[in-house]
Each structure stands twice: as structure tokens, then as C-alpha cells.
Amino acid sequence: MRILALIPARGGSKGIPKKNLRLMNGKPLIAYAIENAKKSKYIKDVFVTTDSKEIEEVSKVYGAAVIKRDNELSSDLVTLDPVIYHAMLEAEKETGKFYDAVITLQPTSPLLNVDTLDSAIKYFISGNFETVISVVNKPHLAWGVKDSELVPLYSERKNRQELPPQYLETGAFVISKRKVVVPESRIGSKTSVYEISEVESIDIDDRNDWLLAENLLKRKKIIFRVEGYLKLGLGHIYNCLTLAFSMMEHDVLLVISKNSGEGIEKIKASNLPYRIIESDAEIDALINEFKPDIWVNDCLDTDEKYMRHLKSMIPRVISIEDLGSGIKEADAVINALYDDVQQTNVYSGWKYVCLRDEFQIESPNIFNQEVRKVLIMFGGTDPANLNKTLYEIILKIIDKYKNIKFEFITGLGYKNKENGVVTREEKNIFVYPDVPRVTKYMRKADLAITSQGRTIFELAAMRIPSIVLSQNEREQTHFFAQMENGFLNLGVGAKVDSVLIENTLEWLVSTAIVRKNMYEIMGKYDLRKGLKRVKNIILGEDYE
What we know:
- It is built from 18 helices and 24 strands.
- By secondary structure, it is α/β, with parallel strands linked by helices.
- The strands form 5 sheets. It has a 7-stranded mixed beta sheet, sandwiched between helices. Strands 14-13-12-15-16-17-18 form a 7-stranded parallel beta sheet, with helices on both faces.
- The longest helix is centred in the first third of the chain and has 16 residues, at 80-95.
């Protein structure tokens, strides 16, 4: 089938002056329609019909032929039907061809995808329709006027998803058999509609449409490769979820291996798009399917071969908390937990911490001279079982602290009952597993005991003086949890004598001046700006 594409583009736009020529995300608006038509598997010839010399010249730059439109076809009152009819006849004169079908492509639909266009053409051909019109399905509870009275246009009030389809023309395209294109119409007797997405249906009519479309065109496709399981912990999962939620204006996909049981459960609960893979052997197929602009690794150390392979397929590759040799190949490495990587593409230190939303909005605690509440938190899985260690210590010394409430916040992957870490109200010990908002329990906490992962930054944001016991040797290298930043670090938890923990707790409870100093030190750090910095680094924008 020989198909002609016609793109009508007047020069006299009033809502947005010179609309068809203005740059949208770096290209003239009309360029999107021309490029779609030229990329189509079905369209043979592409013409722009216009009354503007400037539009004519720009259209030729992008590879379209041009038909000059007479003044009588260029007024505000003229419909598209006679314009398309005139352009079709002129195109046939110029090419010497007789077309089987004519597609009207509006330059005001820049988000239309060529795959959608080709799918619609295929539908038109296979159904032997005389006309196919692009529509968007927008069912709503609508009202109208009948006999001068306002009446509902529905018989029963239902939720939107339960309403019957209501198709609205988008104007993106009209596909017509040549025989039905006449001066008065392009609609044949056998007409159908082709549903397109709400995004693709955006029609540029006013400034708000323009702003929306341009922002959507700037969207990136971002894959977060993340892991989270008992031995590794869930810190990477929480960090990626924080970043993904901050990038809702982009297309985000979380990728996790099947071995990350606890991590998968957390990602499922987020309702974000995700993919579970058997192994890294599936990565190439995933990249070819999703076509990401950016790949973010948050699964510890990478090697050069892996990173070079990603770079060969994806424009921008980022690593988080990466100390492997692969960092040389990354476009950027964000190591908030480490402060000693000397490399130009590495951004280290507390300035690059990504606080979750609840910490962005919560105010820091007010300092109390007397300790009334102690918080114990060792992450999502607590691989070293430090919860049990502290639980047994506190049970042994609880009689010293009758006026203090001890609260354990345990994570999704921690087995409370199996470890015997359970609430004992008579002892003033309370255990809260997998809480939805940890700030609820951090409020009014006067002291905390924690491991050395990202929780230290959350405690610093809330200004809670803390005793730190790291889960392992690698966690011990996380630089921030030191006295100079308001933390009393006792080392790797499994190697710390219980008596030292008891004595340190007693010292801090009884020495308000030390806790006050720790509290004030924490107030020096503005951790809430880190998320924006990291987001900008990932996107390749100015990070200051």
C-alpha cells in the first residue's frame, strides 16, 4: 500500500507564537512529526503543507517535501479537510504517484511514538478500514444539558475504572483511504479508532501543554540494579527506593536477583516497576528491551569488565558504594559512606547521603538532660544478630534504668521470635518489627544504639546521640560514625565485650554534657540536600 503523510503547519499560531518552529527539548516542534513519518515502515512520502516560508525551510532541513498553501486555505476559520485535500492533489502532481491512503499527522503531538504510529497503520490495513482516528480512552462521570437543564450522562455512578470506554479524539493522526479524502471530509463510512496512551495523546494547544510535553520529553529511562538479603542487609534497597521515588518524572525500573528474598519483598511493597532476574546473564536482554539511558549499580563492588560491558550498551553508568576496580569505568561513583576514594569521578562523604522522605520533612529532636528513651536499631536484616546481643545486655541491667524505655526497631528480614527478641512491657522493653515510619519512634529518643550503615545519617538528621556497633569489617570503614560527628564508635559488634557496652551506655545516660556535645555536633550537618545532589549526578546535571 502506497501511503502519503501530510503534516499541516500554519505560521500564524496565536496561542503560542511561532509554535511549530519553537524549540521543544532542543528541536523545532514540527521536527517530531516529520521524524516519525520518515521512520515509519509504511509511509513512502512526507509533505508539509504550510503558508510560512520559515516553516518551509525548517521542514526541508528535517527531510520533508513542502507544499505551499494559498492564503484562502490559511485563515483561522478553514478546517483541515480542504487543506489536506489540496495537499494530497499537489503531492500527487509532484511525485507522479497515486496514493492508496493519506495520513494526517499533526505537528502538535510531539510525544507520539513511531511504533504506535506503525501499529495503527497496520491495524488500518488489516481491518480494511476507510478511516482510523487516534483516540485516548478517558471515561468520566460526565454531565450535559437537555431541555435547558443540567443532566447526568450516565445511568449509575461508578469508579472511573468501571465506566465504559469513552474515546476522545487526540488529533495525533487520521489515517484515510484516498477515496474518502474530499474537500469536505476525510472520514469514510467504515471508520474505527486506535487507542494511544495518555502521554502520546498530549496536544500542544497552550503554554501548559507545552510545559508538560517538554518535561515528558526530557524523561530518562533509568535502571537501578540492586541487591538486598540477610548477609548484605537492606541498606541498598532502601537507598535505591529513596532515589527511585525522587525520580518519578522519569521511567524507573528496579532490577534484583531472585536470591534477594527480603529485598524482593520490600521492592514489591513499594509498587514501583521491578524485574527479578535469575542471573547477570539476563542483563543484555533486559537492556535491549528497556533501552535505558542510565544504569545505576547499588550492589557493592564492580569490576572493570562488567562496567565496560555496561558502558558499551548504555550512555551513562553510575555506581553507588563501590570500591571495586570498575569505578574507573563509571561516569560517576557516589560513595556517601566512604571518605577516602581519591578519584575525579567519585563523590564521597556525607554531602551525598540520600535521606528518605520522612527525614526530609521531620524536625530534629529537642535535647533532654535526662534520658527517657533509648532506641536500638540494627538495620533491615541484622546479619550479626546485634539485636539479640543488646537485648540480653539490657535484660541483665534493666533494673538500673527503671525510668527509661528501651525500644527495639527491627527490620523486615529479622526473625524476632526465633531470636527471643520480644516485647517485655514489665521490663519497659518494647520491640517493633518492620515499622512503616521509623521517625515516629525516633521522635523524643534521647540516645540510640545502632550499626554503622545508613541509619547513622538518619540518626544524625534527627540529632540523636548514638553508640555504634558495626556489623562487619567493611561496615567499620564507613567514615561518618565517629565522635567528631556525634557518635561513640565501639568497633565491630561481635568483637566488643558486653561489659564495655554496659559501661558506655551507663556513662552516656549519666553524663548529659557529653550527650549535649554529640547533639550539637550533629546539628552542623545539613543532610537533607544530599538527595538532590545525588539525583543531579545520576542525571548528569550540575550537582551543586
